[in-house]
Amino acid sequence: ENTWTISILSLESMDQCRRTLEQHNWNIEAAVQDRLNEQEGVPSVFNPPPSRPLQVNTADHRVYSYIVSRPQPRGLLGWSYYLIMLPFRFTYYTLLDIFRFALRFIRPDPRGRVTDPVGDVVSFIHSFEEKYGRSHPVFYQGTYSQALNDAKRELRYLLVYLHGEDHQDTDEFCRSTLCTEEVLNFLNTRMLFWACSTSKPEGYRVSQALRENTYPFLAMIMLKDRKMTVVGRLEGLIQPEDLINQLTFIMDANQTYLMSERLEREERNQTQVLRQQQDEAYLASLRADQEKDRKKREEQEQRRQEEEKVRQSALAEERRRRTLEEEKERKSECLPPEPPADDPESVKIVFKLPNDTRVERRFLFGQSLTVIYDFLFSLKETPEKFQIVTNFPRRVLPCLPTEEQPNPPTLKEAGLSRSEVLFVQDLTDD
């Protein structure tokens, strides 16, 4: 019995055959069937393929896996046909694997270079509709990465379907399962659905990431522990009701993780909103403080300018006063001497100043009225600007030169008598 088993599994060494039989508890039929399943692409339940680094997390050992195996042969006739065809099938798949392996060294697989991932998906959707009609689940029209991002952002399940065009179960699965009304309604209302053919570069890239064993292949992906994780794998020809039940089971088993992610996201959003509100309040307070500081600086600057203006005004007034005093002294020094009282040409004038004080001085008839003006100007009691007015008749004496009269008249020419009373009128306010 062992010799027959080893001859059937002649591709492997003696030690490998022994390990295979031990894995199957020395059940020859199960070992032969499992070996043939592997040759046909059906997964081995005793020796699953090792996982590779993926775009999504597949390292979780709690991933639910559901595999629909091809039916076992029944009866003497079925087993007879099975055993007769066994060498031919074994030889065919062995030669096919060798040919594919050698072809990789001659011509690299063109699917390994993804240039238009969206075009690959759209092309698959068009070919799917041409072959199976438009009654199908809503395909996600975007790349695999975009579908992952949307599922992560929206906290939804993502069902990935890899379409093996050459697999014998693909047509039946698409027509009898995927395009049925109950499956269509279930997928459209519960999850995002992304699909692509493994003959396309984008589908091949996802196939290399998810490492399917056979077709049809479905993978359920969701956000789990803050990573996009494969939480369920469905492989083989699965019936509509069974597919819905398996997907429902996977969703129910992982609903707590999705709810936890939603709660965490809401907490993060609330924390972010609270932090944003705190930042806005801080910025508002900062702007208010800055506005207060700005107004304070403006007020201080305004006070400084006003004080500087007062100081400059005081300095200007002081300079003007000193200049006026110097001018008065100069005028006083330039005045001609007062004539004696008995001089027949002398004129006695009494001046009434604006502060009601009286000043008396003698002048000569032949002196100009400018001398009278300079005398009054040299007095400290006299305002800065003034004019001299006679009482009766009232007239203003032309003491200063003008364009019409560059040389003011003399006292005699002005019609003054030997004794006069003149009034000094203040013009400073004017």
UniProtKB/TrEMBL annotation:
Residues 342-424 form the UBX domain. Residues 288-333 have a biased composition (Basic and acidic residues). Its main location: cytoplasm. InterPro entries: FAF1_2-like_UAS, Thioredoxin-like_sf, UAS, UBA_8, Ubiquitin-like_domsf, UBX_dom, UBX_domain-protein. GO terms for molecular function: ubiquitin binding. Residues 287-346 are annotated as: Disordered. PANTHER family: FAS-ASSOCIATED FACTOR 2, FAS-ASSOCIATED PROTEIN. This is Fas associated factor family member 2. It comes from Myripristis murdjan (pinecone soldierfish). The lineage of its organism: Eukaryota, Metazoa, Chordata, Craniata, Vertebrata.
